[in-house]
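Reminder to self: C-alpha cells first, then the designed residues, so the page reads top to bottom the way the pipeline ran.
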C-alpha cells in the first residue's frame, strides 16, 4: 500500500490542528485531562457505526478518534514532552517487535501460537509483576471482569465443568438472599455478576455484548409501549402495569416473528 498521499494528508491534518490549538481560545485552554472523556465518547460512537455497518458514519467517527490522538499529542508537544512523531515511532517499533513471525525469522503457523507469543513478548516488554497488570481499571466493568478471568484461565485458574459455574451462580444468589446490610447486599450482587460473566465465558458469550443487546431489546420494547400509549392519547403514568406488560409481551412477539422471517 502506497501511503505517500496519506502521509501528505496526515501532515496537513497535524498542521491544521496545530494552528487551531494556537489560535482557538477553547482549544488553547484544554489539557489531556480536560478532554480525556472525549476519547471514550468518540470510541463508543465509532463502535455504534461499526455495529450498524455504516461506512459513511465510520469515516466520520474514525476521523473523530484520529483527532483525539492528534489533539492529545499536540498538547504534549506544546508542553515540550513529546509529539505525534514519538507516538507513531513507538507504535512502529512495538508492532515490529511483537510480530517476529512477520518481520523476523521466527515461524508461527497458527493464531493460538501468535497470541501466546504476543502475550509473552508483551509481558517481557512491560516487565509486569502480575499477569493481571495492564488491564485498565477504567474499562467497562463486564469487559474488565471477562478479561481478568481470561488471563487467570490461561494459567489454569478456571472451572473445568460448566455445571460447577451454574452451582456457583446459585450459591451466590443464596448468599445475596441471606445478606443483611446494604454493603453485604452490594458485595454479593457483585459476586453474582462475576459468576455470570464466568458462565458467559464458558458459553463463548461476551458478557458486555450480551447485556448491550438485552438493553437494546428493553429500549425497543419500552418504546413500543410509549407508541401504544400515544396512539390511545394516554400518558405512561396513567397506564396500569398490566396494560404496559400486555404491550411489552406484544413487542416480544413482534421481535420473534421478525426474527423468524429473517431466518427463512
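Designed residues (264 positions):
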Amino acid at each position: 500500500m502506497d501511503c505517500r498521499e496519506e502521509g501528505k494528508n496526515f501532515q496537513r491534518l497535524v498542521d491544521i490542528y496545530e494552528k487551531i490549538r494556537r489560535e482557538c481560545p477553547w482549544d488553547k485552554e484544554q489539557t489531556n485531562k480536560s478532554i480525556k472523556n472525549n476519547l471514550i465518547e468518540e470510541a463508543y460512537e465509532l463502535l455504534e457505526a461499526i455495529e450498524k455497518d455504516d461506512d459513511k458514519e465510520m469515516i466520520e467517527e474514525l476521523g473523530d478518534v484520529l483527532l483525539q490522538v492528534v489533539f492529545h499529542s499536540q498538547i504534549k508537544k506544546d508542553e515540550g514532552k513529546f509529539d505525534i512523531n514519538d507516538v507513531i515511532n513507538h507504535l512502529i517499533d512495538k508492532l515490529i517487535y511483537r510480530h517476529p513471525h512477520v518481520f523476523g525469522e521466527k515461524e508461527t503457523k497458527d493464531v493460538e501460537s501468535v497470541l501466546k507469543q504476543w502475550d509473552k513478548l508483551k509481558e517481557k516488554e512491560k516487565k509486569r509483576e502480575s499477569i493481571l497488570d495492564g488491564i485498565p481499571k477504567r474499562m467497562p466493568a463486564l469487559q474488565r471482569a471477562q478479561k481478568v478471568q481470561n488471563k487467570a484461565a490461561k494459567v489454569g485458574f478456571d472451572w473445568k465443568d460448566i455445571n460447577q459455574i451454574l452451582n456457583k451462580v446459585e450459591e451466590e444468589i443464596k448468599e445475596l438472599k441471606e445478606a443483611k446490610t446494604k454493603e453485604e447486599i452490594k458485595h454479593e450482587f457483585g459476586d453474582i455478576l462475576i459468576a455470570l460473566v464466568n458462565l458467559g465465558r464458558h458459553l463463548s458469550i461476551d458478557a458486555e455484548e450480551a447485556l448491550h443487546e438485552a438493553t437494546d431489546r428493553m429500549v425497543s420494547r419500552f418504546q413500543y409501549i410509549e407508541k401504544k400509549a400515544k396512539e390511545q392519547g394516554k400518558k405512561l403514568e396513567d397506564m396500569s402495569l398490566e396494560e404496559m406488560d400486555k404491550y411489552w409481551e406484544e413487542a416480544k412477539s413482534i421481535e420473534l416473528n421478525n426474527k423468524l422471517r429473517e431466518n427463512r
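The chain has a mean pLDDT of 92.
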